Amino acid sequence: MDYLNAFWVGGLVCALVQILLDRTKMMPGRVMVLLVVSGAILGFIHIFKPIQDFAGAGISVPLLGFGNTLWKGVKEAVEQNGFIGIFMGGFKASAVGISAALIFGYLSSLIFEPKMKK
């Protein structure tokens, strides 16, 4: 049942994003920023965790999960370090994911031959 819940919740998120891309004039970059900010807002109002308990990777893998990770990092850093935590918390919380994305992207570029769109 966990897989089914992750599938339909993740599919719903992706379908809503596709509708935004198809029906509005929003550029993909703005939609991605909207997802990250939405994840942070859902974490702020304590809705993200119950959804994540229900849907698992269906909600945490899309950019909503990244936004929530940034929010949690900032929240913890502010509790520990005060105002300066606003600037360092998100970096600390997301450093591993960002580093992994950079490393795997670089390794992929070494293995596969990238082609430019014409």
Write structural notes for this entry:
With 118 residues, the chain is mainly α. The chain is 82% helix and 0% strand. It has helices spanning 2-23, 28-44, 48-55, 57-60, 63-81, 85-111. α2 (28-44) crosses α5 (63-81) and α5 packs antiparallel against α6. The longest helix is centred in the C-terminal third of the chain and has 27 residues, at 85-111. The protein is globular and about 50 Å long. The mean pLDDT is 90.
Give a concise summary.
The protein has helices spanning 2-23, 28-44, 48-55, 57-60, 63-81, 85-111. The chain is mainly alpha-helical. It holds the Pfam family SpoVAC_SpoVAEB.
Describe this protein with a few key phrases.
mainly alpha, single chain, 118 residues
Cα gyration radius (Å): 17 Å
Query: Hey, roughly how much beta strand do the residues contain?
Result: under 5%
Number of helices: 6
Question: Helical content, roughly?
Answer: over 70%
Query: What's the SSE pattern?
Result: HHHHHH
Query: Quick one: overall form?
Result: globular
How many discrete structural domains?
1
Residue-averaged pLDDT, rounded?
90
Largest sheet entry: none
- Point out poorly predicted stretches: none
Distance between the termini: 44 Å
Query: What structural category characterises the helix and strand content?
Result: mainly alpha
- Based on DSSP secondary structure assignment, what is the total number of beta strands? 0
Transmembrane segments: 6-24, 31-48, 83-107
Pfam families: SpoVAC_SpoVAEB (PF03862)
Keywords: Membrane, Transmembrane, Transmembrane helix
Organism: Bariatricus massiliensis
